[in-house]
Amino acid sequence: MVTTHNLGFPRIGKQRELKFALEKYWSNAISQEELLHIAATLRQQHWNNQSQLDLAPVGDFSFYDQVLDMSFLLGNVPKRAENLSDNTLDNYFRVARGRAAANESDCTCIQAGEMTKWFDTNYHYIVPEFSHDTHFALQAQHLLAQITEAQTQGVKAKPVVIGPVTYLWLGKSKDDTNKLDLLESLVKVYVQLFDELANLGVEWVQIDEPILVTELTPDWQAAFKQTYATLAHSPVKLLLASYFGTLQDNLSLACNLPVDGLHIDAINAKEEVQTVINTLPKDKILSLGIINGRNIWKTDLSATLLWLTPIFQQLGDRLWLAPSCSLLHVPVDLNSEQALDTDIKSWLAFAVQKLAELNILAQALNQGQASVTKEIAKNIDAINARKHSPLVHNAEVKARVTQVHDTLGNRNTDYESRAKLQSKKFNLPLYPTTTIGSFPQTLEIRQARRDYKSGKLSEEKYTRAMQAEIQHCVQVQEELGLDVLVHGEPERNDMVEYFGQQLNGYTFSQFGWVQSYGSRCVKPPIIFGDVSRSNPMTVNWTTYAQSLTDKPMKGMLTGPVTMLNWSFVRDDQPRSATCLQLSFAIRDEVLDLEKANINIIQIDEAALREGLPLRKSQWQAYLDWAIECYRISANGVNDETQIHTHMCYSEFNDIIAAIAQMDADVITIETSRSDMELLDVFDEFDYPNEIGPGVYDIHSPNIPTVDAMVELMQKAAQRIPAKRLWVNPDCGLKTRHWNEVQPALTNMILASKQLRAQ
Ligand code: GLN
Ligand code: ZN
Question: How far is it, in rounded angstroms, from Cα 396 to Cα 525?
C-alpha cells in the first residue's frame, strides 16, 4: 500500500479568515481568546480538508510565520523581546512586526525581526537571530497542544518542523559568531523535542531541510552528518524533507543520512528520482512529491500514473506520495471561484483539489486503476481540453515570437551617442529630479476604481475622476519643480494586474490569495495562454498627462520579467517562452507611446532578481533570457527616446553585468536603506549609463532631510560622474500620504539644487 501525506496546508483560510482575525486583534477589535478560537476553527477545517490522507501535518499552522514559530519553539527569542510581557503571543507579534497591538505603549514596541524571502517563493520569513550568547531551550507547549488537538479530532498527526541545519542556515549572526558553532547545542533541543513528541504517541515527524537543494559548502554538508548522527537515536521516525529543486551534489548525502524516510520534490527533481531510488538504503521510505505545490494547474493524472506504476512495483509499501512542497504557496479552494471562465476553471487545482488528486493517484495504485476510472477520465478530458483550447493557443502570437533575431533587443546606437541627442532634446539640468511613477492612492481613488468595476460609476465619470487626479499630480509636480514628470498611476491597483487585465492570455481569480508575509496576501494573476496586446494600455492616460505640461512626461510600464515573476505561469511551455510573448506585448506599448510623442518611457523590472534560480550555477541561463526579454520590450525605440528602468532592491552587485546589458539610458534603484552601500559595486564595475540611486526610503513615513540626501548623492558622485546621476526617491509613492510626499519631495528638490550649485 502506498501512504499519502501532506507537507503543509495554507493557513490563511479560504476567505482569508486568519488575516482578518489577526488584523482585528492587532487593532484591539477582538480579544486574544477570540483570535485563538478562530485559529483553532481554521486548523480543524484544514484537517477536515485533509481527512482522506494517511498522515496530516501538524505545526504547519502559524499566526505569522513558521520560521518565527521555530525560533520560539527553540527558545531563540531576540533579547529585546524577552520579558516585555507575560503574554508569549504578544511577544511573538512584537518580534514579527514591532508591536502587538495598535494602542501599545512605546516601551513595549521593539525593532521587528528582519524579513526575507523563503527560497525562491514569494513567501517571506522572519530571519532567526544568532549571537555568541544564543541559548536554546525547548518551548514546545504550543506544538504539543496542537498535536493533542489534532489527535482529539481523530487526525493521524505528523508534526512538521524545520530541521536544525536549515534553521541555522536561514538565520543571521548578529556578531561574528560562526553559526555552525551553535549546532551542537541546537540539536540537543531537537532531541528533547522528539522525546516529547514520542510521549504523545507520535510515530512520524517531518523534518524540513530544503537547503539540501542549494549549493552547500563542505562545512554545511558535514553539519548534516553530525546532526543526523545525533538524531538517529530518536524515539520517533524522521522523514527528512527537501523541496523546490534538485539535490545534485547533496543527493548521496540526503539519501544516506540515518533517518527513516526521505521526501523529494518529484516535480522539480523528476530526473533525479531513479538515482535516488538506486541510492536510498532499502529500509527507508521514499516520499515523492508528485503534485506541484507551486502552481495552480491540474496534474496530468494518467501520465503521472504511468510513470509511478513501475516505481510502485519497485518500492511497494516504501512509497509515499505527497505534493512537492507545502501547499502554503497555492490558494486554498477552487470551489470559491464564481467568476472564472468555466473552461479555464476546469484546468485548475488549488490546495483542496490538489489533495483530491493525490487521493486519486493513491487509490489507483492501491486498489487498481479501475477503482478510479471516472475520475481519471474526467482528468484526461480536462488535460486534453487545455492542450488544444483556442483560449490557450494563438497562432499569430506563436508565429511572431519565432521572428526573434539577435538585433531585436539592440538600440540603434550606443549610449554615448544617444545621450548627446537626448540631452539636446530634453535639456535637463545637472542632477535632474524625477519620481518612480505612482503618487498617493487616496481613499477616493480607490473608491472610484471599485465603483467603476462594479458598474456604479460610468466609464465617462471614471475617466474624468482619473483625469482629475492626473491633473492634480501634474500640478503638484510642476509646483514642486520636478524635471521629469509622471502621471501618477491613479488607474492602477497593482502594477502587474493593471496590465494583465488588458492582455490576452491572462485571467484573475477572486479568492486566489497566497500568503506573502504575516497577514499579507497576494493574488497572483494567472497566465493561461499565449499573451498578446489588443489595444494600447497606457497611451491615453499618458498623453492626457503630457497635454497638461511642457515638461517631459515619463510613460510608465511594467516589464515582461516582472509580469512573469509575479504571476502563476502556464506550465505547458518554458517560462522563457511565456516571457518572450510578454516582451512583445510590452514592446508594442513602448512603440505606441513613442508614436504618441512620449519620449521618456520607464519599464519597471521590480521583480527581475526574484526569478534567480536557487543554485548560482543556473543564474546565467535565467539572466540570459530574462535580460533579452527586457531588451526586446524596451530597445525598439529611436535614439532620442530615453528609456528608464527601475528596480526595488539593493542587492545588485552580483548581477550588475546583466543589468548593464539591459542598456537602459537611466536606471533608478533602491539604495537609501543601505546607505548607498550598493554603490561600492561601481568601484569595480564601470556602469556605463545614467543612474538614479534612490535618495530616500519611501517605506517610512519619515521626511528625509536635505542634508542627508545631499550627502548620499555626494557619495554617489564619488563613483559615478555627476552628469550621469539622477535624483529620485527609491520607489513609487503610492503607499504614502500627500502630506508626507510633498515635504519629502520639496526637500529632495532642494537637495538637487544644492548639488547643482556645488
Ligand atoms: N512605477 C511603480 C510605482 O511607482 C513601481 C513600483 C515598484 O517598483 N514596486 O508604483
Ligand atoms: Zn520599486
Answer: 23
What are residue 61's phi and psi, to 5 degrees? -70, 145
Q: Is 699 a catalytic residue?
A: yes
Which residues, 6 or more positions from 396, have their beta carbon under 8 angstroms from its beta carbon? 532
CA angle 597-601-606, nearest 5°? 160
Q: C-alpha cell of 287?
A: 516520499
DSSP codes joined into one string, 58-98: ES---SS-HHHHHHHHTT---GGGTTS-S-HHHHHHHHHHS
| pLDDT of amino acid 651 | 77
d(CA 295, CA 291): 9
The residue nearest atom 4 of ligand 1, judged by CA position, is 732
* pLDDT for the residue numbered 682: 82
At residue 673, the pLDDT reads 67
**Residue for grid cell 467568476:** 339
Global pTM reads 0.95
Contacts of 146 (CB under 8 A, 6+ apart): 43, 58, 59, 61
Q: Which DSSP symbol is given to 319?
A: E
Ligand 1 atom at minimum distance from 646 CA: 8
* Apex 560 CA angle, 736 and 477, nearest 5: 35
Q: What is the mean pLDDT of each run of 10 residues along the chain (758 residues)?
A: 98 97 96 98 98 98 98 95 88 91 74 90 95 96 98 98 98 94 98 98 98 98 98 97 98 98 98 98 98 98 98 98 98 98 98 98 98 98 98 97 91 97 98 98 95 96 98 98 98 96 98 95 97 98 98 98 98 98 98 98 95 96 98 98 91 89 95 72 88 90 93 92 96 94 98 96
C-alpha closest to that of 336 among 356, 357, 350, 347: 350
3-state class of 122 per DSSP?
Answer: coil
Euclidean distance between CA atoms 293 and 354, whole angstroms: 8
203 vs 611: CA distance, rounded Å:
38
How far is residue 193 from each of residues 180, 695, 732, measured CA to CA in Å? 20, 48, 46
Q: Please say whether the beta carbons of 91 and 85 come within 8 A.
A: yes
Binding-site residue ranges: 16-19, 117, 122, 436-438, 489, 520-521, 566, 604, 610, 646, 648, 670, 731
Listed as own residue / partner, the contacts of 720-725 with beta carbons closer than 8 Å and 24 or more positions apart are 720/679, 720/682, 720/687, 720/691, 722/430, 722/431, 722/755, 723/430, 724/689, 724/690, 724/691, 725/431, 725/690, 725/691, 725/692, 725/693
Please identify, by atom number, the ligand 1 atom nearest to the C-alpha of residue 436: 4
